[in-house]
Amino acid sequence: MRVVMNAFPLLAPKSGVGYYAYHLARALAKGYGAEDEYIYFYGRRFSREIIARAPELDAAARRVLKWLLRDPYIVTQPVKEFFFRRGVRDLGVDVYHELNYVLMPFEGPQVVTVFDLSIKRYPETHPSARVRFFNKYFDARLGRATRIIAISEFTKRELMAVMGVGADRIVVTPLAPPEGFGRPEREAIEAFRARQGLPKEFILYLGNLEPRKNLDMLVRAYRRLCELEGDAPALVLAGEATWMSESLVKEIKRCRLEGRVLRPGYVREDELALWYGAATIFVYPSRYEGFGLPVVEAMAAGTPVIAADVEALREVAGEAARYVGPDDEERWAVVMAELLNAPVLRAELAHRGLARAAEYSWARCAAETRAVYEEAIRGWRK
After folding, report:
1. pLDDT at 363 over 90
2. Cα–Cα nearest to 175, from 3, 375, 337, 363
């Protein structure tokens, strides 16, 4: 089987889609590379190599593009499609897998991965150019997909409810922490803590800094925690400020928490486990998720989790996390205080989290994805 995958998400500082593209591609190559051929499209060229570049260069290029162009999608999408159409014709591809929502022109079996429909449910939390692009391209092209991969049962239900997709076209393949991911040794954590200048205890959020993640509410809940506890551990908001994060900065200032809310910026994958392992508790207050990969990563690192009480996060974490309504600031403060003051409860949650996280693997995701390719090829031939 010869598969072409849109690996363009690997060319930017990786968040959810980029991590999915990278780990799925590696797992497929490891499990099936001897019998299948995988070709990766990087926007202008095709390669049989999985690129793993440092994020700084791509981040800089993306910032320049956004600065130069009010609506970069108008330029980037046609350019990608031109090079894709020109190159894919001569490759003899059996199936095309679009890893980032919007299918490119292709005559043959097509598989697309859909992570969530936040841009449909909460368009106000996305840049207007992104919403226009999505509504124009995603809506028009989803019907071309021979099969659709959803990363959770929740996203499958959303595809059926919002986009009217039949259940028989959707297959669920859950995500996973990186292979070998776990809690680092204490010595490594302490060395990392010293390097980063981190306090002995802190509350961690890790992910993109954008409106959907509900971080303004978390800052207000943290202020209430400080009032309840007097001397609460620092709140660390780790991740890239992807878009519309100005209100978060204003909220931190309004709550007079500049010295207690830390924003270290983008976190490289090789440091993820250290950030989780050094934290006392992990918090994830997102209003809407398709899966919630940071929750699984935190559990795999042995860090107790408090998550927003939304469908996808309950599906993913099960009984291994504490849940709080995404709008209940007072309750968030109370539950954070409870966990900070209860080491036995934290240990119990950490134990449950380790067991829950062990249920997810990229090998399983790769096996289920490859089966989707085979289904798509059979479906196309009919």
Report:
1. yes
2. 363
